[in-house]
Amino acid sequence: MPMPLDSYLGVHPQALKLSAQRNELLAANLANADTPNYKARDVDFKSALATANGASKLAMTQTGTPHAQTIALTQNSGTGGDAQTLYRVPLAPSLDGNTVDAQVEQANFAQNAIRYQASLQFLNGKFRSLMTAITGQ
Amino acid sequence: MSSFNIFDIAGSGMSAQTVRLNTTASNLANADSVSTKPEDAYKARHPVFKSVQAALGAQSAGAKVQVAGITQSTAESQARYEPGNPLANADGYVYTSNVNTVEEMVDMISASRSYQNNVEVMNTSKDMMLATLKLGQ
C-alpha cells in the first residue's frame, strides 16, 4: 500500500532525484568537453520520470522496503548505456570524435538547475502546508 | 552519495584543464628556446585527456576526466643561422623549438573557458545542495 505522504508529495521527489542524476550527467559532459572520442550523454527526462514513477509504484507493492525506489532508479540509468541514458545526436561533431557541444550542455545544465529548484520549491510548499495543517496555525 | 559525484567530476575537469594550461605556459615560455642539436630542441607538449567511467554498478552515471599522458609534438625543429650565438653548431646554426604560438594561445583560451565551465557547474551544484539542505525549513 502506498503511503499517503508519497501520494501527497506527488511527482516531485522523483523529479528531484532525476534532476540530480541528470545534473551529474551534464556535469560529466562539460568536464569531458575536450576529451577525444567522448560521447555526450543525457536522459530523456519525460520518459525517465514516467519509468521512475512506474518503477517506484511496482517496487512499493512488491517489497515495501524504503530503498526500493532508489535502487530501481539507479539500476535503470546508473550503469549507463541502457534504456534511460542516451547518447546525444551531435550538431557539429569535432574531428577528435568528441560530441560535446559546450553551449548546448550549458543551456541544458542551466535548465536542469532551474527544474531542480522548482521541484524543491514545490516540495517546500507541500511541507509548509502540511505543517500548517498539523499545527493549525 | 550521488550528489557529491558532481564535485568529483567537475574537480577532475578542473585539474585536467590546469594540466593543459601548465603545458601551454611551458610551451609559450620556451617558444624562443634554441639548442645546438635538433633532437635537443624544445618540443611542444600537449596533454591527452581520457574519460574514466566509474566502476559498473557504482551509483554514478557520469564519467570523470583524467590526463592519460603528455605527448610531445613531432613537428620539425627549424634551423636558424645565428653564428654569433654561443649555442650555434659548427656550421653556425641553432635549432629553435617547434612551438606554434598562435595554436598555443587558442589552446590557452579554450582551456580557461573549459575551466570556467567546470567552476560554474560546481557553484551551481553547491547552491542546489545548500537549497536542498534547507528543504522543509
Task: Write a compact overview of the structure shown.
The complex is a heterodimer of chains A (137) and B (137). Chain A has one domain.
Describe this structure in words.
The complex is a heterodimer of chains A (137) and B (137). The longest helix of chain A is centred in the C-terminal third of the chain and has 34 residues, at 102-135. Chain A has a two-stranded antiparallel sheet with strand order 1-2. Chain A has one domain (13-52, 70-135). With 137 residues, chain A is mainly α. Chain A has five helices and two strands, in the order ααβααβα. Chain A has helices at 4-9, 12-31, 45-62, 68-77, 102-135, and strands at residues 41-43, 85-87. Chain B is α+β, with helices and mostly antiparallel strands and 137 residues long. In chain B, 42% of the residues lie in helices and 20% in strands. Chain B is built from two helices and five strands. At the A-B interface, α2 and α5 of A face α1, β2, β3 and α2 of B.
Give the overall shape of chain B, derived from the CA principal axes. Answer: elongated
- Unreliable stretches covering 5 or more consecutive residues of chain A: 57-83
**Rounded mean pLDDT score of chain B:** 90
- Largest protein interface? A-B, 36 and 42 residues
The succession of helices and strands of chain A, N to C, reads: HHEHHEH
* Beta strand % of chain B: 15-25%
- Give the biggest sheet of chain B: 3 strands, antiparallel
Biggest β-sheet: strands ordered side by side in the sheet of chain A: 1-2
- The helix tally of chain A amounts to 5
| C-alpha-based Rg of chain B, rounded | 22 Å
Quote the average pLDDT of chain A. Answer: 78
What is the total tally of β strands of chain A? Answer: 2
Oligomeric assembly = heterodimer
The number of helical elements of chain B comes to 2
What is the count of β-strands of chain B?
Answer: 5
